[in-house]
Amino acid sequence: MATGNLKVVPYAHVIAIDSDDSGRVTGVRYLTDKKEYFQPASVVLLAGYTYENSRLLLLSKSKPYPKGLSNNHGQVGMHYISHTQGGYWGGGVVGLFPHDINRWYGMPAQGVAVDNWADDNFDHTRMGFIGGGNIHIPMELNAIEASGMPTFGQVPRWGSKWKAFVKLNASRWGYAYTQISTLPYKDNFLDLDPAVKDPLGYPVCRVTVSMKENERRAMSFIQEKTEQWFREAGAIEVLKTPISIDPVTTHAYGGTRMGGDSETNVVDRWGFSHEAPNLGILGASVMGTSGARNPTLTAQALAWRTAEHLVNGWKSIAR
């Protein structure tokens, strides 16, 4: 969004945010029908989601910002956080019950979440990790998903025995996933891919991330609690799926994180760039860490806070 002229530029075609020799942003360049335009602005608010926020800043190189806009301290893209989640596909728990548990055609929001071991809700003495996670039991199941259910080693994954097993147990199984607190690390980061380009010919965002021991221990702890819960609920078979991390996720944070130190953070407490004072950045990319819950409301609250600060301080920010 370019403010001052009240024009909203579709981000899908924005190719750069320009700045003058003093380091203040002057507007955005964008493509429409392969033709380039420039939209001048007194203030620019960047809200392209976690991955694209870092990507566009890194693409916006200029004389005052040779490494990318607001990146003279090399912090854009750093401390990326992929909200570590465990599900049926990895890091979760799957249970088989001796009766129908009625999961057909529900939605995730209709499930049950257990917060007993989320964040600081429990005693961490001798746990060996910081934070924790919640356990979520989604109530969503359809025929296609049911046909892909695990067989718990009881029958092969094909043939007549498999068909009979699925027919009997399609509505008798369920899974739990967890979302855990995830810490920022310097070697988890976003940058520009040196080889892969988007359809417009610009480098795409490259994600470099790995699971650390703190998060692995937390996930393992929550898996054990979930298995115990399933068995006490009557599960006759329990399967723990291998712990893994989602490198690219809808629960993504960091890359333009917020903090008072301009050498280790991209934006200040109000969401405005330490280096380009009339550039505001919105979204979970400004968040410095991740709790066990979804980031939506926190990201929204921070965006409102940035907007309010801009309204109240317009004359000094947009000068």
Q: Can you give a write-up of this model?
A:
The protein has 319 residues and is α+β, with helices and mostly antiparallel strands. The chain has two domains: 2-78 and 252-317, FAD/NAD(P)-binding domain (3-Layer(bba) Sandwich), CATH 3.50.50.60; 84-185 and 208-240, no CATH class. The protein is 21% helix and 25% strand. It is built from six helices and 16 strands. The strands form five sheets. Strands 7, 8, 9, 10, 11 and 14 form a six-stranded antiparallel sheet that branches. A three-stranded mixed sheet has the order 1-5-16, with no helix packed on it. It is elongated, with a radius of gyration of 23 Å. The two termini are 18 Å apart. 37% of the residues are buried.
Give unreliable regions as ranges: none
- Identify the CATH architecture of the largest domain: 3-Layer(bba) Sandwich
Let me know the largest β-sheet.
6 strands, antiparallel
Could you say what the CATH topology of the largest domain is called? FAD/NAD(P)-binding domain
Spatial shape: elongated
Question: How many structural units, i.e. domains?
Answer: 2
> Which percent range describes the beta-strand content?
15-25%
> What is the overall pLDDT average?
90
Helix proportion range: 10-25%
CATH class category of the largest domain: Alpha Beta
Counted beta strands: 16
Helix-and-strand structural type: alpha+beta
> Please, how many helices?
6
